Amino acid sequence: MAPSPVLEVLEEVEFRYPQNPLHKYSIPAGLCLHRGEAWCIHGVSGSGKTTLMTLLASLRRLQKGRIRYRFTGGDTVDVHPANWRWVAGPDLWRRIGFAFQRPELLRSLTVAGNLELVSERKAAALFEAEEWAKIAASRVWKVSGGQIQRLGLLRAFGPHQGLTFLDEPTNNLDMRNRQQVIDFVHQGQRDRGLIVVSHDDRFLAGLKADRLLAVREQPGSDGEVLRALCDPPPAVGHGNQSISDDVPHSLPALPPRPASFSTGELL
After folding, report:
1. Is the predicted pLDDT of residue 263 greater than 70, yes or no?
2. What pLDDT, on a 0 to 100 scale, did the predictor assign at position 256?
3. CATH number, domain at 39?
4. Cβ–Cβ under 8 Å, residues 114 and 140
């Protein structure tokens, strides 16, 4: 019997920003992410990658659709427009790991205090002992952007989180710290479902993602613009060709359990 997915899009998800209702964001029904799998969302800057990822995490109120989460122990949570206000909140989000480009840390706590919310023992995975000793007692507003980035990443891999979302996790990092992050995420993804937005080819190659999802724009009627997750265009996977953001194509419904793709296709 196949394992149940940790995330499943049961009904097509739609969302529009009130200040820009002509742009519709869409996630097709049938997407299923299993524990141990990693997805990468790819697209040009400003195409809506982060918006679509936050919809998958129910951080935004769905205007249409239904997403199901399955957590350790078999607990199942369905989120849809009618129940989002009551279901999508701290009780749900503490079971999901998040690391965004600007990590949300508690300024009233020290660096160590923020990490203790998950497990301070993880610090050694991304910080040298000497570096950690210097910053552990500092307030988070006193440390560098790269250190904050790594701290946010550590918090996204808590022991009770079976699903993690990462938005450009290697931003603000030098080459050495970037490699530490690659190794840490690759090891951490084995016991959870992982969805990543990233433009870092080296990170994506080390991630060994199971699926690539593209974000494409397609004009609709009356000036509407559809931004949807879809399979990448045929340009992917042919020699040294990279993803072409100018290739027109339709936005098909995605199969629930795709074959793996090679991260070499992204390079």
Report:
1. no
2. 46
3. 3.40.50.300
4. yes
